């Protein structure tokens, strides 16, 4: 009887050791799985944040370039308009053809500058230039 109790205790001890080993293995597997999921979530979050940052930087560069182009076109147009206005104001007589030629030269200068700096044609009609919302083209057509 003592021998049976001793063997029973040894078997129970072996079962407990086996259960403990299995519990440790389960905990290790669960821990590694959670760690893997957390690592993946972190890298996905970091990647998304990096993409947003790069997109924002690209948008800012585009805005800066558009602003520079707008300023340059404004300078060209404003300077040309000022010259035409001065000539109208201080000129002795108005030559309509001469004025139209000067305005056309002004239009061509601004169009050439926009084309050099990355403007694109709309494809809607001959010679139509578009710089996003086609506002410059509308100004010159009116």
Highlighted features:
142 residues, mainly alpha, two-stranded antiparallel ribbon, 3 helices, disordered C terminus
SSE topology:
Layout: H1 2-90, H2 96-116, E1 120-121, E2 129-130, H3 135-141
Antiparallel strand pairs: 1-2
Helix pairs in contact: 1-2
Summary, kept brief:
With 142 residues, this protein is an all-alpha fold.
Q: Could you list the spans in which at least 5 consecutive residues all have pLDDT below 50?
A: 121-142
| Mean pLDDT level | 82
SS-based structural class? mainly alpha
Which descriptor suits the 3D outline? rod-shaped
Query: Count of DSSP helices?
Result: 3
Portion of residues within helices: over 70%
Q: In total, how many beta strands?
A: 2
Termini gap: 114 Å
Radius of gyration: 39 Å
What percentage of the residues does DSSP assign to strands (E)?
A: under 5%
What about the largest sheet? 2 strands, antiparallel
The secondary-structure element order is HHEEH
Going across the biggest sheet, name each strand in turn. 1-2
